[in-house]
From TrEMBL, chain A:
Pfam families linked to this entry: GATase_5
Keywords of the record: ATP-binding, Cytoplasm, Glutamine amidotransferase, Hydrolase, Ligase, Nucleotide-binding, Purine biosynthesis, Transferase
Lineage: Bacteria, Bacillati, Actinomycetota, Thermoleophilia, Solirubrobacterales
Protein name: Phosphoribosylformylglycinamidine synthase subunit PurQ
Record pathway: Purine metabolism; IMP biosynthesis via de novo pathway; 5-amino-1-(5-phospho-D-ribosyl)imidazole from N(2)-formyl-N(1)-(5-phospho-D-ribosyl)glycinamide: step 1/2
Taxonomic superkingdom: Bacteria
Subunit structure, as described in the record: Part of the FGAM synthase complex composed of 1 PurL, 1 PurQ and 2 PurS subunits.
KW Nucleotide-binding (keyword) present: yes
HAMAP family the UniProt entry points to: PurQ
Main location: cytoplasm
Amino acid sequence: MKLGVVRFPGSCDEVDALLACRRFGEAEILWHRDRDLHGVDVVVLPGGFSYGDYLRVGAIARFSPVMEAVTEFARAGGPVLGICNGFQVLCEAGLLPGALLPNTGLRFLCRQVEVGVANPATAFTRACARGERLSLPVKHGAGRFHASEAELDELEAAGQIALRYAAGHNPNGSARDAAGVTNAAGNVLGLMPHPEHATDPLTGSVDGGKLFESVAQHVTEGAAVPA
Amino acid sequence: MSEVATAQRHRELGLTDSEYERIIDKLGREPNRVELAVFSLMWSEHCAYKHSRKLLGRLPTEGEHVVMGPGENAGAVDVGDGLAVAFKVESHNHPSAVEPFQGAATGVGGILRDVFAIGARPIAVLDSLRFGPLDSPRSRYLMNGAVAGIGHYGNSIGVATVGGEILFGEPYEHNCLINAMCVGIAPRKRLVRSAAAGVGNLVVLLGAMTGRDGIGGASVLASAELGEGSASKRPSVQIGDPFEEKKVLECCLELLDRELLESLQDLGAAGLSSSASEMASKGEVGIDLDVARVPRREPGMEAFEVMVSESQERMLCVVEPARLDAVRAVCDEWDVRCTAIGAVTDTRRLRVLEQGEPVGDMPVEALVDDCPLYDLAPERPPEPVYAPPRARLTAGADLRSTLLALLGSNNIASKRWAYEQYDGLVGSRTVRRPGSSDAAVLHLAHDGASGAIAMSIDGNGRRVACDPYTGAVEAVLECARNLACVGAEPLGLTNCLNFANPEKPHIAWQLEQAVSGLADACRGLGVAVVGGNVSLYNEGGGGPIYPTPVVGMVGRVPDPGSLPETGFVEDGHAIALLGPFLPALAGSELEALRGEMADGLPELDLEAHARALEAARAAVRAGVLATAHDVSDGGLACALAESCLAHGVGAQVDLDALVARVGEGEAEADALEVALFGEGPGGMVVAGPHDSVEQLVASLAPDTALILGETGGEHLTVETGATARLEIEVAAAATAFERGVADHFS
């Protein structure tokens, strides 16, 4: 498996993501000006503050040249993981439903939270059991997932809210405790918690590795996953 | 401008008449407007250290680990494996007292630039903050803004904020302190100095455009007391753009990796004036700059404004002409502005041109070395300088309510509200997060090194106010003890000296005593000072701040895989107290809560403390301890309570031995109170399996190691003479500790 981590100007966690990816496969950095994806099997959009995020989180990054290729790759079923700012970019790019608003507390928050796997049938959760709890850190100021009530009902019914904050762990006021959301096909996942910061026992938990193991299975065994 | 107008103007710019005469003498004529502006900043306290430079010579700056000492943008020490760790602490007090968000944000931005200016990648930020008590709306406003500003800059640029301290006291109400320390890592061969070299080489400005922001900041804000009109100084505060700095950071490190730069320097206080003259001075060359080539953010800027602007996110470098195209290519890739604005000359003069026409011409030596240095006139004040703190605890409170009051007090309560606003994880090096150990620990595996580094920043101004010499010694000891809690041996030290107006004899005395204390403590522990910063004139409407030397240290941790943490982790562990800890109420938090303030602290035996630190490090490095926690504010009772509440593990301890240690000449009840809440350097609470802890204690001298008791249960129980004297539910202690600060912001 070869993973590509996109570096936008202002990305902060791209090296962290690269290091995590390399525990599970080959990985390289993709530059925001790249128009092709160097043949990678998985694309990771990392955390950070792309282009400074001065306008609205993720709003500028979605227009960068590399996003055309990422969009094409995602629409063709390629697995794409958006972490934190990457999630925000995917929503802005229309590859994921909903939007991410400032936390209800209106402050940046960095803390370890518990997240439950609500749908183990996606490209990034298939190595997990339904209901499995993962300990992952969050660190963001704009992570409150928002969509209309009707949309939220549809997302829930379709299993697109793949990860949920455990009771008492929702750090940002996300609707339906949504921590991670997929597209309808389940090949694109955006989440606010940072799985790449949970792959080394020395620096915290290793639960984030489950997402990378999942996509490794997805790549090697093919996309057919029992729903 | 007429000569008469200029002569009046030098005073407005903060120069004395005799300093102005000296400038005329050095130039051989009256300075023009540009020259006067440049001189006024270069000769300001902030840039010239004219009241502190003589004293700073007392600090030891040489040691086996030192790679770069004071004088460069940041200090650096060797950590083995071909790597160096760069670090420095700097203040941004006055700007933050005027506009806390941008003041603190640009304080972080500035210290980051200092570290990458020498070729190191910033990997950690620690902050030492001081505010007035939180029941004051102004203090809450300042703290709210400063914490948000630090988070904004550090989070956005992707450097982990891993530690720090926040303390409170009435003297900081009008003049808060914002000290930021940055730690960076570099292959030793990438380290670069700031000395300009190579006559004919180009001087290239990188990064942001130059605007009118921060004009005169170094003299207007940093070198004078804040008074009634501070709000009108707001335009002197710089505005930060972490996105720009992120690009400049990555661009500079790539330029250095490709060996395209001869030297590199950040633009900080006094902007181009200071950077260019420092680079020329160190390289013993001259520099010509053409201000017309400097990209500007606003039209109509005059030459002097371009020379003194403190616009952020700018770097100055020296480039061989043949490499300029390669430099441009890297800058284009990162979308970083890159403009050749001048050249290195052999004149030893800083010449300022505007479209080729000279508008200023000054000897570099006059700018950098000839500012008059002033002798202090220290005088011990005949009576205490500070009013005692406001009483917050009634006399006669029982031990339980005293402990709860201490745990919930501003100084001791959890700072979670603040540190949760900081990204402490980016970089994937953070082994110990804020709140989990006394020193932050970052491993170096991604950088190609074994082991880890630990870092801490400490200082207790109120104790220094009680006794400037001993208080400063204690700051060094506490920082070293925090490192010892994770088994780290100090490699180097940086300090920030925050004091009030040194022209006043009693402030000069504080400064002189504190620097002596720092110097003696550094020598006693064998630690070299590799850099630092001095912030004077910290007094607002409320009088002088407490004298606040802040000490930052970086140490090496051989094995980050088996480190103890601050909390008790399981039932049935033996608890011991290590170190020559002799608690006293003088200078303690309890004394402050009672509205009292001692004059003088107990003397201490530096050699005994150095030996104890060595023993503590060895004990931690042996890998048998589950818990190690420094005894500091609030004394042993607070240290034990903090260890209990971290994971909700109780403890039963017997203090007979400690009471006997402190008890000579004291009534028994008083001795217990001192043993519980008294403070002093040298104490460390440790816990681990019985065999290991008992063996450890048996191996140490009885006056530096005591078995206290055992972990377990849901209470912290303290006994003497087999009778419980203090019993508190861990949950109640936790509530007081968690709410003490947070409740002020909800």
